[in-house]
Amino acid sequence: MLKTFKLGGVHPPENKISANAAIRQLDIPKTVFIPISQHIGAPSVPVVKKGDTVKAGQLIAQSGGFVSANIHSSVSGKVKKVDTIPDSSGYPKMGVVIDVEGNEWEEAIDRSGTLVKEYSFTSEEIVGKILENGIVGLGGATFPTHVKIVPPKGMKAEMLLINGVECEPYLTSDHRVMLEKPDEIIVGTRLLMKAMKVDKAYIGIESNKPDAIKLLKEKVQGYKEIVIVPLKVKYPQGGEKQLIKAVTGKEVPSGGLPIAVGAVVSNVGTAFAVYEAVQKNKPLFERVVTVTGKGVKTPSNFMVRLGTPVSELVEAAGSLPETTGKVISGGPMMGKAIASMDVPVTKGTSGILLMESAESKREKTLPCIRCGRCVSACPMGLEPYLLQTTAEKQMWEETEKNNVMDCIECGSCSYTCPSSRPLLDYIRYGKSSVGQIIRSRKK
Amino acid sequence: MSITILYTIITLSAIGATAAIILYFVAQKFKVYEDPRIDDVEGALPGANCGGCGFAGCRAFAEACVKENNLDDLFCPVGGNDCMTDVAGILGLEAVKKDPRVAVVRCNGTCEHRPKTNRFDGASTCAIASSVYSGETGCQYGCHGYGDCVSACDFDAIHMNPETGLPEVVDEKCVACGACVDACPKDLIELRKKFPKGRKIYVSCRNKDKGGVARKACKVACIGCGKCEKECKFDAITIANNLAFIDSDKCKLCRKCVSVCPTHAIIEVNFPPRKIKEIPKKETVEN
Question: Which of A84, A88, A89 to mutate to test the interface with B (most CBs of B within 10 A)?
Fold first, then answer.
């Protein structure tokens, strides 16, 4: 009997059509647009100016606070400008635009493909390297990794969970990384364990990736402290709290962080990035991005330099299909439709989904029939129909009382609603408004 | 039989009298004094309970009026000066006269002027749309057109024009309570001075982008060129962040700025058509 989380969850069609496409290096574009805010927390502070020559891997924006991350150039070339650039929401954001010249890397980076298993770093040195190389969570939330692996005072980490679940339909970037870089992931996991001073790690993988489970099980032989946990397929198992529940059976308390139950969750992609940062001195300036969709000619997984415009990725996967209704950054459940094709790939871009126009359109919104499907689908045990109503009526106290802040925005409620009500839209609105109220109360 | 009835009457009357005496003393003991003027003031107010004065309804405003020693910071935008004179009369204070105001929507980005670049199909409210993205057009400052202002209005004074996709204010019904101003996430609606005959001159744009960027997104965007500022003799126009703003309290409706605006971002409403000036003929000197 495979493990899974108990409460709620849905089973959207998996559509992992790009699962067999090996990771291809995408050509370096002519110009890259690197936003200075690619992570949760304070935006970074640019340290280059117009006309500067940069190399790939060179620091271009310094971490702007405790919860923030360094940003490095993904290409070599000349800084064209430090100005506002398009963002997936359409609002202009600050960024660095670099005109590409050649492909020169910083000398310190080890560009060879050889696997470096051995290391003699202390925990602090590993955390230092992670901080220096701007590693953030690559699962999508982009929380700075150096903050995550150092537990706050009074808390103690007991175990590391490596997230290889990839429960989002369509996306296959984590799957491909597990298949192609298994040794690197194991080294990365051991480095993270060393940094956190824990002696137990679990790698959770959903059972729809039997090849990855088999391969990693072979690779962890000899490392007793790392356990591969196959999981039953259910969305949103890739959510931190759901993964902890599925693997350990522990429940993170309302409003608490995973560290409250002694767990720290990191994505497989992050483990790979940690390996590269520590063993190869390579800053996080490229990542694997899935480009997929039913109309796409060659659904692919690309290794992409950060800052590459989305249009380049789409072009490389065989041009934009005419039937495209929506271009989504991320997966169909949690991803966001992007406002323009000039938006660049950032640290949090796990996939680009070109959705067919027919399936992308929302159905007409009908009245709530009180069927309770959203309640049984909610993995956090909330009442989405109620939160939607209170948010719509702007009854913020009620919304807060019904634990709106615990919502992980997985979209299971909207997915399951037979009346196609925009539940998550309103809950997000409620979350941001209540969040503002809570912050102003603390001041 | 008759004795039973008699006893009943006597007993009940006795209970009634005792209760009345107790209640009288209790009422004296726990009496809450309320200024009778509060009721009078509330009677003089329009009773719209719109919150335009900044208080939670007319009763709360009336209480505030009675409590304060002057009416300097208190004004009912719905009742206007007449209503405030009545209130001042009741309280023996002096009313502060204020110019009547009217809501003005400062965006002219119709489908014609502002081409669409994408499509939004989420929950159709401006608050949600603006929290997730910049809008269906290239202008991140313009109207979303989902009508949060319309649903905020208690006076049926603002409607969406289906042709332009923009809200329009019915001046006669607008009481300047400011509900729509708060509802608009793009901060497009302003309460401006009400001029006679419904005349208005205002910059119908909130785009703070540089001129070229603004113009590319919308044909009638303010590009911040500053021509109007130079033209204005009354210091009513200021330019900040590539955007002109006309202060309605200083504006004298001379219309000079309207004619110099290269993008027609400045709009004049309810003016008679301009007379075409006759070009004076050059006197030709016959040789």
Answer: A89
Assess contact for A353 and A333: CB atoms under 8 A: no
The pLDDT tens digits for A210-263 are 999 999 999 999 899 999 999 999 999 999 999 999 999 999 999 888 999 999
B241 touches chain A (CB under 8 A): no
Residue A407 Cα to chain centre, angstroms: 17
Query: Would you state the structure tokens that stand for residue B245, as one six-digit string?
Result: 């703003």
> Taking a contact as any Cβ pair under 8 Å apart, which residues of chain B between 61 and 90 contact chain A?
none
Q: What is the pLDDT of residues A275-326, one digit of tens each?
A: 999 999 999 999 999 999 999 999 999 999 999 999 999 999 998 888 898 9
Complex-level ipTM: 0.84
Identify the structural domains of chain A with CATH numbers, from first to last: 23-109+283-359 (3.10.20.600), 123-280 (3.40.50.11540), 373-442 (no CATH)
Question: How large is the average pLDDT for residues A175-184?
Answer: 95
Residue B283: pLDDT above 60? no
Domains of chain B with bracketed CATH: 36-91 (1.10.15), 101-269 (3.30.70.20)
Rounded to two decimals, the pTM is 0.86
pLDDT band at A112 (very low <50, low <70, confident <90, very high): confident
- The answer to whether A84 contacts chain B (CB < 8 Å) is no
Q: In angstroms, what separates the C-alpha of B133 from chain A's closest C-alpha?
A: 4
Instruction: Give Cα separations from A364 to A375, B123, B153, B240 (angstroms).
Output: 21, 11, 26, 43
Chain A to chain B, count of Cβ pairs less than 8 Å apart? 41
CB contact (8 A) between residue B140 and residue A428: no
Reported for B71-78, long-range contacts at CB under 8 A and 24+ positions apart, including other chains, are: B71/B95, B71/B96, B72/B96, B76/B45, B76/B46, B76/B52, B77/B52, B77/B53, B77/B101, B77/B175, B77/B176, B77/B177, B77/B178, B78/B46, B78/B48, B78/B50, B78/B52, B78/B175, B78/B176, B78/B177
C-alpha closest to that of B150 among B117, B184, B123, B173: B184
State whether A340 and B118 contact (CB < 8 Å): yes
